[in-house]
Amino acid sequence: LLFPVSNLCGKCKPRDTDLLQPSLNFLYCSLHQTTPCSQQRAVAVLLSNVSLLELLQKVLECTWLRSPPSEPAYLSSEDALLCSGWLLVASLLLYQHRYNTEVHQTLSLDLTKVLNAVIFRKKKPILLLAPCLVSIMQFLRAVLRQNFSSSLLVIVGQNTDQGATQPQPSSLQDAALHPLASQQVFSLVISLQNLLVHKDLLLSQTVVACLETLVEYLYVKNQDVALHVASQPWHRFLLFTLLSGGQKSFLQPEVLRLMTLFLRYQSSNIISQKEISQILQEAAEANLAELPEATSRALHLFLCQV
User: Fold this and answer.
1) Mind listing the GO biological process terms from this record (predicted)?
2) CB 288 within 8 A of CB 296
3) Taking CA 148 as the corner, what is the angle to CA 144 and CA 152, rounded to the nearest 5 degrees?
4) Which of 33, 228, 237, 271 has the most CB atoms around its CB within 10 Å?
5) CB under 8 Å to 168, separation ≥6 — which residues?
6) In angstroms, what CA-CA distances link 269 with 210, 227, 233, 262, 273?
């Protein structure tokens, strides 16, 4: 089925949302819900389809042409198509790298536009756009994990003139973080913190995962910047915010993963021995067999880090 569906997609235009959206979802599910052997073949089939990749390029570019939503409770078919496109491209990046699959057509994206889609959202209702933000952050995680070096993707729009107008330390810092600029990194971190405050479950899980990947990327590039990001005092306020409201337990997946992140990078000003003791106490009193899978996995990673 991959052959006819991918060929059908290649013959469509981005405005054919009723046909494209379920088709891209089918391709996405085919990549994720199959055996490793079949997965490698599926990636090769999709990456050999030049028309499909050209269509995906056009779909992603529609992100920047999108008008602000008029109905805050309604996710349009265009938005749904964008979500499917970004998720499929993120998956193709991941599996192309894993299997070192031959690429017949590259995708080109402006990194500044991708970052701004997450950073600047003042005129857009946050929860309406949560699926779109989740999809774009999944893509961002994929390129960060590959150090912006995927043979499937060409990054354009890098601000090469920025260092010339800044003091020398900032120039060296930006050079180390390339293609990211330090100001983009700090703006992205602030945006991710703000997104967590909304306490949307799907968004929170993706934001924490994106923050983890970002700090890992920074640690390889410039340890001082990574440790600076991980020890921001605002993180502590963020933890208290996440623990407020109905569910005060530390045994929330996003809270545990944040705690693990701060432990990993020795952010003692964010997480103290008191919080560690509270988590261990809650874990000792909990019925571990009844914990959700996401919580069990996050708790396991936290205990290993401790």
Assistant:
1) meiosis I
2) yes
3) 115
4) 271
5) none
6) 22, 12, 7, 9, 10
What's the pLDDT tens digit per position in 236-263? 988 888 887 656 689 999 999 999 999 9
Report the run of H or E that residue 87 belongs to, with start and end.
helix 77-99
| Residue type present at position 132 | C
Rounded alpha-carbon distances, angstroms, from residue 104 to 3, 44, 120: 16, 10, 34
Contact between residue 261 and residue 218 where contact means Cβ atoms under 8 Å apart: no
Distance CA(16)–CA(27), nearest Å, equals: 16
User: CA 73 to CA 167: how far, in whole Å?
Assistant: 46
Q: Which two tokens stand for residue 226?
A: 């990574």
* Beta strand spans in 73-197 (E): 107-110, 153-156
Angle between helices 201-221 and 130-145 (to 10 degrees): 20
C-alpha span between 207 and 194 (Å, rounded): 10
Three-state DSSP at 126 gives coil
Give the CA distances from residue 109 to residues 52, 116, 156, in Å, rounded to whole numbers and listed in that order.
16, 13, 6
Between 141 and 268, whose confidence is greater?
Answer: 141
Q: Across-strand partners of 107? A: 153
pLDDT digits 0-9 by tens, 29-41: 999 999 988 999 9
At 109 the three-state DSSP class reads strand
